[in-house]
Design goal:
This is Spermatogenesis-associated protein 13 isoform X6. It comes from Castor canadensis. There is one protein chain. With 561 residues, the protein is an alpha+beta fold. The protein is built from 15 helices and 14 strands. 43% of the residues lie in helices and 14% in strands. Helix 9 (239-257) crosses helix 12. The protein is globular, with a radius of gyration of 28 Å.
């Protein structure tokens, strides 16, 4: 492997943590690793697993993501399932058992339970009676108090945080620094696409770890009070949103470069010079996405082993909710960013659009369909309505070309109140109506009367209007805002794509299937079965083994989003 193209600057620097003023802390990375080398040494975790298994211990892992497979030799499971690891000699694929069967599964889809002696709660164990007896003996032989279990979780949080800082440092110093020296190979725009704001994340995580270390009790780890640290920095974790949104583009850009041998050799030389573990660059770039998803899981486990009498109980509970909401916010922003391009293309396709762009106020289509709008004079107008967050857009179909829509106005939903109208004669309008509802202005005398064709259509519109208000409220609570530059970019791309094409709304965004989502504070990071998997932490899913089934499936156009 030739490494002559890479200078040695930064490759031999000390691994000591550096504070924001550039001065070194009074401990090095190597010193910090002494606490729990099993988890910190490259390959150490795998060796430890095999040692435990060979000793007859039960090793359990918790699924981080759904693993859907059509291969009989692979083990399928859902996020949150517990798998017993039976063999881990291969670093990528482990052999394990769940309630259904024994088979291979991808090691990167799971995380090891910190307290291995504990069997899954409220579930029928996949172990046989004989193994259960052995497990009981093992438990009896090595009793672990709740205090010790909390110590294990605290130590895992601390050790994984230190390893994560090392990965971020290696990316910034081992890759980014070297790339910037080779201006003939990388443009500024390319580096921004590949690495996103990972340097900002590194700076933030250094502060976070510094505060975490202050709250860590080295002598008695179970007494550590780290909950307040998460609460203090919860707003700072929002920077992960930008990184996660940028990550798919980073993967595309990097894969294009990796098609050329000189870039493959360059990145490998960077890794070797920085003395990084044997993981490709795309694997390192995935770690921030995985990390922000892992915090709620770690805090949930810590809460489980923190008694209500513990001084940190309330803060840990609040931190768990806070980090769940951070993960939820990141996921929502990703989903909305995916939808704004579709909304921009849809607006460009509308004939005679007037006023502000949709994206100035809206970022999501909630419902659409045909309604009859009735004026006070009793005149009826058949219109196609599109309900976005904050506004309801009315369009008219072309008589000859049914795929062409003409803009006919919009209603500000923030100013309106929804009123259900009973079938029969409406006293205010002196009209007989069926399947009707009104939108009444809170500040003026503006009133809109709508009639649906069927009772179920009306019910869906009432539900959609209530959902629109709920979405707006949640966005405000979560601080959900799409950056102005991304809105402008979406409109610019839509206008370029629409030049020279005839108008038509074949690219109209599709409203997501209706879901009765629980209140925001009750939602869990674990993927619910009713929500499409790609909408929840899809970025964090590692690369999977190639499958002809999935290759064929993705080629089927009707199934594409």
């Amino acid at each position: 492997m030739r490494a002559s193209n890479v200078s040695s600057d930064g490759g031999t620097e000390s691994s000591a943590l550096v504070d924001d003023n550039g001065s070194e802390e009074d401990f090095s990375y190597e010193d910090l690793c002494q606490a729990n080398p099993r988890y910190l040494q490259p390959g150490g975790e795998q060796l430890a697993i095999n040692e435990l298994i060979s000793d007859g211990s039960v090793v359990c892992a918790e699924a981080l993501w759904d693993h859907v497979t059509m291969d009989d030799q692979e083990l399928g499971f859902k996020a949150g399932d517990v798998i017993q690891v039976l063999e881990a000699s291969n670093k990528d694929w482990w052999w394990g058992r769940n309630e259904d069967k024994e088979a291979w599964f991808p090691a990167s889809f799971v995380r090891l339970r910190v307290n291995q002696e504990e069997l899954p709660e409220n579930s029928s164990s996949p172990l046989g009676e004989e193994q259960e007896e052995d497990t009981g003996k093992s438990r009896h032989k090595h009793p672990e108090s709740k205090q010790q279990m909390r110590t294990n979780v605290i130590q895992e949080i601390m050790s994984t945080e230190r390893v994560y800082i090392k990965h971020l440092k290696d990316i910034c110093e081992g890759y980014i620094r070297q790339c910037r020296k080779h201006t003939t190979m990388f443009t500024v725009a390319q580096l921004a696409t590949i690495f996103g704001n990972i340097e900002d994340i590194y700076k933030f995580q250094r502060k976070f770890l510094k505060d975490l270390e202050k709250r860590y009790n080295k002598e008695e780890p179970h007494l550590s009070e780290i909950g307040s640290c998460f609460l203090q920095h919860q707003e700072g974790f929002a920077i992960y949103s930008e990184y996660c949104n940028n990550h798919p583009g980073a993967c595309v850009e990097l894969s294009e470069l990796m098609k050329q041998g000189k870039y493959r050799h360059f990145f490998e030389a960077c890794r070797l010079l920085q003395q990084m573990i044997d993981i490709a660059l795309d694997g390192f770039l995935l770690t921030p996405v995985q990390k922000i998803c892992k915090y709620p899981l770690q805090l949930a486990e810590l809460l489980k082993y923190t008694t209500q009498e513990h001084s940190d109980y309330n803060n840990i509970k609040a931190a768990y909710e806070a980090m769940k909401n951070v993960a939820c916010l990141i996921n929502e922003r990703k989903r909305k960013l995916e939808s704004i391009d579709k909304i921009a293309r849809w607006q460009v396709s509308i004939v005679g659009w007037e006023g502000l762009d949709l994206l100035d106020r809206s970022s999501e289509l909630i419902h659409s369909g045909e309604l009859t709008k009735i004026t006070r004079q009793g005149k009826s107008q058949q219109r196609t309505f599109f309900l976005f967050d904050h506004q309801l857009v009315a369009c008219k179909k072309d008589l000859l070309r049914r795929d062409m829509l003409y803009y006919k106005g919009r209603t500000d939903m923030d100013e309106m109140e929804l009123v259900d109208v009973e079938d029969g004669r409406d006293k205010d309008w002196n009209l007989s109506v069926r399947n009707a509802f009104k939108l009444v202005s809170r500040t003026t005398d503006e009133v809109h009367l709508f009639c649906a064709k069927k009772q179920e259509d009306k019910a869906r519109w009432l539900q959609a209007c209530a959902e629109e208000r709920q979405r707006v409220q949640e966005d405000q609570q979560m601080g959900m805002e799409i950056p102005e530059n991304q809105k402008k970019l979406a409109m610019l791309n839509a206008q370029k794509a629409g030049q020279g094409k005839s108008k038509g709304y074949s690219g109209c965004p599709v409203a997501p299937p209706h879901q009765n989502l629980p209140p925001l504070h009750q939602r869990h990071v674990t993927v619910p079965t009713s929500v499409p998997q790609q909408q929840v932490f899809a970025l964090a899913e590692p690369k999977r083994k190639p499958s002809l089934f999935w290759h064929t499936f993705h080629k089927l156009a009707p199934f594409r989003k």
